[in-house]
Predict the structure.
Amino acid sequence: MPLISIQNLSLNISNVPILKEVSLDIGQEKFGLIGESGSGKSMLAKTLLGVLPLGANVQAETLTWKGKDLTNINEKMWREIRGSEIAMILQDAKTSLNPLMNIKKQLQEVSSATTPLSALQQVQLPSPEEILQMYPHQLSGGMGQRVMIAMMLMQNPKFLIADEIVSALDSLLQHEILTLLQDHVKERQMGLLFISHDLQQACQFCDRIGVMKEGQLLAVDTPAELRKNAHPYIQRLFDAMLPEEPK
């Protein structure tokens, strides 16, 4: 059974169509969701977390998490799922943290089962004792993302949504963060939804990839098979990729 199953999901916000008959299953894998800004990637993620804005109307034949129907659950049930079962990391981690609390206190509020020091050590942060005393504005971009990953992993979710989490980092930090994510996904047998506009990066990192355009899911396949897809938009994405450097 897939962790997430979606059949013919449509989303309108204030009568504006955002998602159009999206069908998708995601299991214990690294699944990439690719598309330009405004294609519906992040709105699909927010639908899976039940955090849509006012005026949103979701219709779906199927929308399930581990077999549980999500189409008619109340806010209390959503809160039980968020974080503890499905967690999300955003692009700018520092703005997701409380600017008035140091890192140690914020980690303590997440879970008592794991110490803040242990949580930072698990994401390979250097000098974790010093970082625990820092405030969000004192963190670099890479440090902030590692802290957010640590915070999400403390809740032991079964599914992680990573929304453009490395797009603001340099290539070395991108590689380090993605390697860290990959290791934890494999070790914890999690599912990962990796949202990005970077097809080349997704092809290197993900097991399967879905391509979105204007609220529609055009195709889902492995990177190798997706490259063979004849859809003009998908071909343009591959044509725009930089050639890989010789090893």
